Amino acid sequence: MKSLTIRGLTKKFYLRESKRASFFKSLVAMPELLRGTRELTAIKDLSFDLNEGDVLGILGLNGSGKSTLLRLVGGIYRPTSGSIRIRHDTSLMHLNIGFNPDLTVAENVFLHGALLGLGKDRLEGSFEDIISFAGLEAYVDVKLKALSSGMMTRLGFATTIQADSPILLLDEIFSVGDERFVRKCRKAMEELADGGRTLLLSSHSREIVSSFCNKALVMDSGSQSFFGSADEGCEHYVNML
Amino acid sequence: MEDEGLKDRTEVRKFDFLSGLYLNLIREITISRFKLSEQGSLMGFAWTLAYPLLSTALFYVLFAGNIGSGISHFGAYAFSGIITWNLFSNATNRGLGSIVFMRDILRNANIPYEVPPISEVLVRFIAFILEIFALMGIMAATGTGFGVEIIALPALLVLEFLLILGISMLLAVLNVFISDINHIWSLVLTMVFFTTPVFYNVEKIIPKDKMWLYALNPLANIMVAIRDVTIFHRWPDMPAMAYTLVFCTVFLVASFKLLKATESMMSEEL
Questions:
Q1: The pTM is what?
Q2: Which among A21, A86, A89 has CB closest to B179?
Q3: Between chain B's N and C termini, which has fewer beta carbons within 10 Å?
Q4: Does the model's ipTM exceed the 0.90 cut?
């Protein structure tokens, strides 16, 4: 069954000389500030469908529009034109979003979980699973700033996979993390996909996409350069480089 | 149809207004911000309380014999004015920076933009509730006593919450687009401070024929009413309260609508 359809999706940003003008400049240059001075098309005419259980790898160079696409699907940006149709709300995971170094591991789990739309009871019920998946049993009451970046990533991933959303959006989550953790994530993602979840995973790495995903979208300067099987997508990406 | 049941992205949201998840989100952000604030510990709260206590002592020495003369229980009067003013000033300043402060979260999680200002105002309100208990301690210690009118106090606190939230939402939105709105708000706050009876006797300072102009300041009305029901054991002036309620409600609804209308613009600006 389809879980996501995207048709003719385009996103334009209207850039200004500088962000956050002063009060007086805002008054004098109001029309220009509202309209912007330069148009940037970040996403151009994207169209594809995903089914339940699909794991899509989004490949592309820096600035190709991968994160913008995830933010559009995540409902953070509105499309300039075209449509995104989904069944239930999504959860977007960026590295350690909402984590605060001065709060403890446990406090961060509850804050991060709330941002993902998880209720307190739900989080309390899966708290031990989260800590155990992240391998942080000995650090529950330790402030986050004492943890390594790899440990934080593990905690973020462990909390995110608890999200009930049928569509998970994972933005460059494997840029930090050791071999063992990557293997653990792969197993968890396979279980999520087997359970009918749809995963969208942005990455620079074709190794990650070929090993984690069944479909690939290759983006080039905001345009859809390829959409199809993960293996063919990786090949296309290599030829594009 | 295979894609039956799919809806447009804008129609699907996790945090429906006032749903369980929405309230849980506000609760978790408020708790974490409170823990990170100075008021999050007993010593932190003691330091927060030190400022109004010191100001009260200073105002007592400087003003009790002149612009504060004729006011019974001047100590409790000044303390109540200072904590009400501090709440307004601190909470609106926290609210002003709230959306920009949480930009990393808002760029990566689809949460409603009113949540940051609501949480920041709530953080400051928690400390204010504790300050209200300190005021009651001062009232008990100075022989002011307690009247039945004190039951109206929670309603007045709600009124001040509505006023602060409305202003905070407006400022938080403006702060996303205008870089020096904090300086402008500081100037406005200075003007509001002197047109609010924090430490002086209104009847003595404001000419009778100008009193209607003074009554347009909703914060002054709330401050006067808080003193009425706590220190002076009388019911608040009802026409003034009715005007203040209408003002606070209209302002809050207008600010909320502006915030919702500019959410998409803000997401690209952050």
A1: 0.89
A2: A21
A3: N
A4: no
